[in-house]
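Dataset card, provenance and construction

Sequences and ligand SMILES were collected as paired inputs. For each pair, a complete structure of the chain with the small molecule in place was predicted and serialized as structure tokens. The example below shows a pair involving zinc ion. Curators did not alter the output after generation; any descriptive sentences attached to a record were derived from the structure itself.
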Amino acid sequence: MPSSPRPAPRGGSRPSSRPTSPPESAAASASGLVSGDWRRRVAAAAREALSVVSPVSCAGCGATDVPLCPACGDRLVPAVTRTDLPDGLAVFSGLVYAFEVRGVVLAFKNGGRVRLADPLAPALGAALEACGRAVAAETAGGPSVPDLDLLVVTVPPSRRGRRRRGYDPVALLVRRLGLGAGARVLVPTARARGGQKGRDRLQRQRGREGSLRCTRDLTGRFVVVVDDVVTTGSTLQEARRALRARGAVVVGAACLATTPLRSASARR
Ligand SMILES: [Zn+2]
């Protein structure tokens, strides 16, 4: 977790008579990083405020004067599906990414409507719970879930995505669930490329390979990977590769939503 920024000094700017010593210039560059962080936060808060001040419409269906209408809210009630990727990774998803749900997820992910994290978080929570239950069932006779001490690790946004949005939607959902642990365990590498839209599974997988790096030694740790929308699963597979490279045992994945094609072949 990044350290919280220090409050601005009272009384405006620093007296100009104070000499600038090397420690101070180090502090200045650190505060530069902090103010960058503030800019991102303010931009995100402004977008959030705009969504309230300007005429608001339902993120799902466009109905006026309400950020989320009751009918679209009902569509966010979790209905968990399970899909097993070809390499055996079990993926649990709380919603199907279609129609109004797609609209709400896109407004949250790309439209700056960060308050939608509240109505969306339960779907991810349900997916995580189902994943935990499956792990427990598959290790019957072995350790129980609390003893497994599952570490929740989020898939990070691409560098470009983070710059564009100013926030990390997946991390926001995980925080709403009171799970802060796995932030910044995975980071995008310089090799990460955006624009996976329209590519098939193999093309996506090739495009993703080497795009994530694990920042910690996770030898022997049991990990659940968390992402927002699963399409072909190539991002989750890349996350597993990066985590395994640092010794983690990836027991499953939990996602907010899955595309309809995937859920059609899903096992409940
Ligand atoms: Zn609606």
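Derived descriptions for this record:
Residues 95 and 140 are 28 Å apart (CA to CA).
Strands lie at 81-84, 90-96, 151-154, 186-188, 212-214, 222-230, 249-258.
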